[in-house]
Every structure is written in structure tokens, then in C-alpha cells.
Design brief:
By secondary structure, this protein is mainly β. It contains no helices and 11 strands. A hairpin with a 4-residue loop joins strand 7 and strand 8.
Amino acid sequence: QVQLVESGGGLVQPGGSLRLSCAASGQDYSQIGWFRQAPGRGREGVSCITKSGSRTYYVESVKGRFTISRDNSKNTVYLQMNRLKPEDTGVYYCAIPIKICDIFGSRGQGTQVIVSS
């Protein structure tokens, strides 16, 4: 099993930026990604990346604002979030996708992101 530990969440004003990090250990994995969950809203796959980093996926609402990357030498994946909006508020989880970037298996404990003025 993969162990995942997120960090980097916090409170930011609209238009601001945050970078989330996820340190992975344990069993090997290929794809990795992020999903988020907001109060009153369902789980949403945000972004995923293949092991080589050659292919990425973004949900439409974050395209052009978020960038996913990974450093395999550090077993770490990052989510750079720019031009944040209040609707980006939620708990962000690093997780292992199952086939597509909307169904996930192993996940971390989550990190809270609040976008508010």
C-alpha cells in the first residue's frame, strides 16, 4: 500500500497562490493525483499525472490556473494553484487514481485550502 502525506494548504485571498505537496512512500505506483471535497459538494478529481510526467489531466474548472508536477527522485508530487477562487475552497487529497482521474484508491489525510477575503 502507498502512504501519502500532504502539506501546503492554508488560507489565501482570491487571486492568490498556494503550492500543495504530497510525499509518497511504500508500494510503487504509476499515476498519482489530487481530488478535492468541499462542504455540500461531491468529491471532484482535480488533476492527475503519469509516472513519467508526460501526461497530465485537469478538470475544466482549473485548467490554466493549476499545474501538477512530480519529482520521482523525491517521491513527491506537487499542485501549484494560481489565481485561486473562492470555489476552489475545500479539502485537497493526494491519492492514487484507479484508471481515471475521478475514482481514487489510497489517499492521504488531506490538507485544507480556504480561499476567502
